Amino acid sequence: MKVRVTVMLKEGVLDPQGKAIGHALHTLGFPGVNDVRVGKIIDLDVDGTDRAAVQKQAEDMARDLLANLVIEDFTVEVLG
Amino acid sequence: MKAAIVVFPGTNRERDMAIALRRVTGHMPRMVWHHETDLTGLDLVVLAGGFSYGDYLRCGAMAAHSPVMTEIRSFAQKGGHILGVCNGFQILTEAGLLPGALLRNANLRFLSQDCHLRVERADTPFTHKWKKGDVFRAPMAHGDGNYTADQNTLDRLDGEGLVAFRYAAPNGQVVAEETASNPNGSVNSIAGILSENTRICGMMPHPEDLVDPLMGGVDGLPLFEGLVEALVR
C-alpha cells in the first residue's frame, strides 16, 4: 500500500527557508502571501492490506525516525 | 584517559579531533566505526563533526539510529563521558541524549568563520580549566547550528545551569538578537549544552581546531586539557 507522511516544522518554530521563499514571492510581485512554511513529503510503499495497520506502522516510523518531534509535526495519509 | 572517536560514513573532522586528543594524552585515540559495538575500557567517546550519512533526512538523524548508538546510550547510562562537536552535537540531540534540536542557520547560510564563546559554568569536566565568564575563540563551520528547544527545556537548561557555552562578543557580551555575536541565531545564544550529570557535552563550534600555535591559537586547548585531568586514572 502507498502511504504518505507529511512532516512540517511546528507552529512557532522559525522557518528561515519559508521566510526566504515568501520574500522571493513578494519580490516576484505575487500579492497577499502572508506566510510560507516548508516541509517534507515522504511517500512509502509498504506491505499490508489493512489500512489501519499501515497507518499505525507509518505513525510509528514517523515518531521513531521520519520526524523530530522536538521541532516537527507529522501527518499520515494512507493513499491505498 | 582512554578516548575514542566514532566515525560514521560522512564524518570528516575525526582527524582534527584525533590531533587535539593526541596533543593532551600523548597517544592517538581509538577510531570506532559505526558498525562496532564494543566500547569497553573507554573514558571518553567523541562524536566528531562532518556530514554523517550525507545529512539525509535531518542532520544527525541517521547516525542517531546506527548500531554504535545503542552502545553509546548504554555508555552514557553507565556514566561515561561524551563530547559531541558540530555534527556530533546534532547526533546527540537526535538520539535524545541531549535536549533540543539544531535548525537551519537563521540567515540560511553555511557559516565558516570564527566565533567567540562565553563559558557559562566552570565546574564540569569539559569547562573546569576556564573561569565562569571567560571568553575564547572557536571556529565554526555549519549550516544547521541554530539551537532551539521548547520553553520548558530552555527554562530547565537555565535553571539547572546546563548551558556550557553561549555565543558572545569578544568582550563577553551576549545579545541573542545580534547576528555579529550570535551568527546562527541560536535561541538565548546557546552554543553548547550539558546533560544533567554534566558528563555529556554537545557544542556546535570546533575547539579541536585551535589547539596548537600553528593552527593560529590554543583557545580550544583548555577543554581537552580539562578532560584529561578530569578523567585521569
Number of domains of chain A: 1
Query: Strand order, biggest sheet of chain A?
Result: 2-1-3
Question: What distance separates the N and C termini of chain A?
Answer: 5 Å
Oligomer designation = heterodimer
Q: Which spans of chain B have pLDDT < 50 for at least 5 consecutive residues?
A: none
Identify the strand order in the major beta sheet of chain B.
Answer: 2-1-3-4-11-10-9-6-7
Helical fraction of chain A equals 25-40%
Global structural class of chain A: alpha+beta
CATH topology description of chain A = Mth169, Chain: A
Number of strands of chain A: 3
pLDDT averaged residue by residue of chain A: 95
Task: Tell me the structural class of chain B.
Answer: alpha/beta
What gap, in angstroms, lies between the N and C termini of chain B? 7 Å
| CATH class assignment of chain A | Alpha Beta
Explain this structure.
- The complex is a heterodimer of chains A (80) and B (233).
- Chain A has one domain (2-78): 2-Layer Sandwich (Mth169, Chain: A), CATH 3.30.1280.10.
- In chain A, strands 2-1-3 form a 3-stranded antiparallel beta sheet, with helices on one face.
- Chain A has 80 residues and is an alpha+beta fold.
- The radius of gyration of chain A is 16 Å and the shape is elongated.
- Chain A has helices spanning 16-27, 51-66, and strands at residues 2-9, 39-45, 72-78.
- Chain A contains 2 helices and 3 strands.
- In chain A, 15% of the residues are buried.
- With 233 residues, chain B is of the alpha/beta class.
- Helices cover 21% and strands 24% of the residues of chain B.
- Chain B has 5 helices and 11 strands.
- Chain B has helices spanning 14-25, 67-77, 87-94, 151-159, 221-230, and strands at 3-7, 30-33, 44-47, 81-85, 101-103, 111-119, 135-142, 146-148, 163-168, 190-194, 200-203.
- Chain B has a 9-stranded mixed beta sheet with strand order 2-1-3-4-11-10-9-6-7, sandwiched between helices. Chain B has a two-stranded antiparallel sheet with strand order 5-8.
- In chain B, α1 crosses α5 (221-230).
- The longest helix of chain B has 12 residues, at 14-25.
- The model of chain B has no long low-confidence stretch (mean pLDDT 97).
- Classes of the chains: A alpha+beta (80), B alpha/beta (233).
- The A-B interface holds A 13-14, 16-17, 20, 64-66, 68, 70-71 and B 57-58, 61, 65, 93-94, 99-101, 103-108, 146, 148-150, 185.
